[in-house]
Amino acid sequence: MDSRSRTVTRIPVNAPTLADVAERAGVSRQTVSNAVNNPDLLRSDTLLRVQRAIGELGYVPNRAARNLRTRASHLVGLRMSPVLEGVATTVMDRFVHSLVWTSREAGYHVLLFSGEGPDPLEGYDDLLRSTAVDAFVVTDTYLGNPQAVWLRERRAPFVAFGRPWDDVEARHPWVDVDGAAGTELATRHLLDRGHTKVAWIGWRKDSRIGEDRRSGWSRAMHERGLSTTGLASRVEDSLGSGRDASAHLLDEAQPSAFVCASDTLAMGVLHTLADRGLHPGRDVAVVGFDDSQVAQLVHPGLTSVRQPLEEVAIAVVRSLEDLLATPSQVADGLLLSPTLVVRGTA
Amino acid sequence: MDSRSRTVTRIPVNAPTLADVAERAGVSRQTVSNAVNNPDLLRSDTLLRVQRAIGELGYVPNRAARNLRTRASHLVGLRMSPVLEGVATTVMDRFVHSLVWTSREAGYHVLLFSGEGPDPLEGYDDLLRSTAVDAFVVTDTYLGNPQAVWLRERRAPFVAFGRPWDDVEARHPWVDVDGAAGTELATRHLLDRGHTKVAWIGWRKDSRIGEDRRSGWSRAMHERGLSTTGLASRVEDSLGSGRDASAHLLDEAQPSAFVCASDTLAMGVLHTLADRGLHPGRDVAVVGFDDSQVAQLVHPGLTSVRQPLEEVAIAVVRSLEDLLATPSQVADGLLLSPTLVVRGTA
DNA sequence: GTGAAAGCGCTAACAG
DNA sequence: CTGTTAGCGCTTTCAC
């Protein structure tokens, strides 16, 4: 036996076709097609007759045939990045939920695929060339984003969740959340509550997102004439890094509050506080980023910046529709504002 | 040759077809088709020539055309249940990741869809009749699972992640994780460490999964001749419920350890301990269920039962392949064992 | 081993 | 407004 044996039996045994409906309704196939796709073209009595036949037969258009004919699949491709255990997949997952929901209302379904090992483009290429999807939603555009460049070169339709940071060539539509505005919000919240030494724990300097979020913190500090010297730390996004960085900052600069680039890092701060018998919120304030499940469940509740992912999904789908309706359209970007979810730690 | 007028500006501007490859290789279209699907049928030199032509043109078979012809989409449908904020979507999301990954290796992609409001079947019906997917993966079979019954009646191919608890009519393939074994593991772990009063906080009695997990706890207790009277609480799956239930149990029965049906409930226990100045792991032991991100990040690390979702995904895809290859096959069930991830709280 | 026909079910383009 | 014609790109007969 060959490994590629295509002996697949299909689901509905005798699904009715356009022809069946046409016969039953006493019209031509085209009229049935119109009844489905352009009801306005039919006279109301004909339409009614056809619709009744459709209902009686339980007719549903065959996707494959329609796709072949219209050269559209009504599918949007989304690449699932490899699972990063412990890292905030939360954001991504919440976004997927919203995207699926929003897409449905626009008549689209979401096709999930995963990267083939090292080359993140491989998955895109196959789906694109096989016309399996109409467009992509690209989510990981943070670093040099090879996907965006590659997709642009192939003139593949896609909308990015994430700004084309330093890619001046970029002409694609994108939607993003203003991270700096979020951390600024968080920092101001702390300053308003009397804190003056607010520390920052963020990501390494090569992360554009990290630097953006950091800028919100420093902007809010400088705005009030406060110094940020010695109050910032840049580490990798892990629990241990957050713990170590906060311990170090606490020793060296005695901040009374921390703003972090992620909930993971903020949880690291909570570990340090617990180790030292300090109470989050009472002794030292902590703010995270992403409003993950952890933030909601941990004692006494982690104050965190929340991205409006539902709105992002809506905007992405809207861009997608524009893009597919008018392929050569001028690309636009949209920057949404996050909110601060205040809980016990701040 | 057909002078095809590419009016539509879809993704690939000039996607080569079978005919293009055939012309370039100097063979017929069918030979190219065979080269792709049944390479064994070709003479090696012909095969090589065709493959070179395919490579040079960058030919990829058109999915819609192939789907129409073969009546298969190589797509698996998965319904995303509405987002339940705060509740462990973690499991589901981890599973989706694994499923996408495993499916790819089997030549399948995952199509996400969402329920249309109240009726959870609506989404299934459309996809099924329109031949958009070859089969479904059904994940929420916990309660009376209307989907399973409905899908069975339509003779729709599907594999369930979750047992057909009390559905004796069920003949579909399923994969599940032995929750009772997990809680038994957790309870034994505590008993081995000297605890004798291990309390249970689980879900309400109408949850089959909840009762199953509870049975593992009581089995382990009785096995050692320990009483479970007054040590169990059944509540809804929320942080507040876990907090209240644990406070009540602590007052009434003074347990030294808690086993919970979810990480959410376990986090509720941690809240109670924090409120009373008790230290998790040192004063009172706590074990959760699902090994969510929270368990990994909270101080001092929540010991939790972890479901082998990667294995589940592999088994599900394998069942899917069997099912699609041999539709009338006898259904089988597979029960996998979870593991205990030991951290600071136990 | 390879090629020639015959559609899968649908819709764009026209004709009536 | 409705019907007729002609494929979309592919694979499944069945000749050669």
TrEMBL record, chains A, B:
Domain HTH lacI-type: 16-70
Keyword Nuclease on entry: no
Example of a GO MF term: DNA binding
Keyword match Transcription regulation: yes
Lineage top rank: taxon: Bacteria
Keywords assigned by UniProt, alphabetized: DNA-binding, Transcription, Transcription regulation
Domain HTH cro/C1-type residues, every copy: 17-60
Cited Pfam families: LacI, Peripla_BP_3
PANTHER family: HTH-TYPE TRANSCRIPTIONAL REGULATOR GALS, LACI-RELATED TRANSCRIPTIONAL REPRESSOR
Protein name: LacI family DNA-binding transcriptional regulator
Lineage: Bacteria, Bacillati, Actinomycetota, Actinomycetes, Propionibacteriales
